[in-house]
Amino acid sequence: MTNGTVASPSRRLPVDDEPASIARAARQALDRSGGPIGIAVAAAPTVAFVVANALSGLTWAFIALAGAAPVVLGVRLARRESLRAALFGLAVAAVCALVAAVAGEARAFFLLPTVLPAAFMLLFLGSLLVRRPLTGLAGGPRDWRRHGPLRRVYTVTTLVAVAINLVNFVLRTVLYSADQLAVLAVLEVATAPVLLTLAAFTLVAARRAGSQPTAVP
């Protein structure tokens, strides 16, 4: 008994009994994203746009994008990927193309992907300020906020997410200003593995932290 209160008994949160490893969790996250082939297929419209623009100009870039998008949709559905994810990818490509068409320049295709990391960074940072780290809200156990080790895991991984989005935003802004479309396309493809690695690390760390007993306030 301390200061007139009685400490509740320590407890453990239920966790997956299977051995957790970053490599295994990364493979699972990669599989859920379609694997290396799925990532390559999802990047095909952007690659087609950039290559066609470099070879023949903006008009042909739009034509290449219009030809690649439905093919990619068909391939993703043939691979039995989520219809919602496939349609979302198609919609994002269409919006990016619309922005480029309105602006009248190819680099505007990357305007939305350049701005989004800043929005995500503010979202993650805001979740920390209100003490509700977003990585926990996105996939943690229902009562993880009462579990000290889990709170620390989700706080740290949310901070890492803030840093990743900050670096992503700065790099994209510099490349966008320099009109480096090819490098922007590479960066867009490379972002997915980085986020998958963070998700895998969060999963492993949360499983291990969840097995540690902690006093419930």
From TrEMBL:
Q: Is Glycoprotein given among the entry's keywords?
A: no
Indicate what this protein is called per its UniProt record: DUF3159 domain-containing protein
Transmembrane as a keyword of this entry, yes or no, is yes
Domain of life according to the entry: Bacteria
An example Pfam family from this entry, by short name, is DUF3159
Where do the TM regions start and end?
34-52, 58-78, 85-103, 109-130, 151-171, 183-206
Q: Which organism is it from?
A: Actinomadura alba
Q: Tell me which InterPro entries the record gives.
A: UCP010219 (IPR016566)
Q: Which UniProt keywords apply?
A: Membrane, Transmembrane, Transmembrane helix
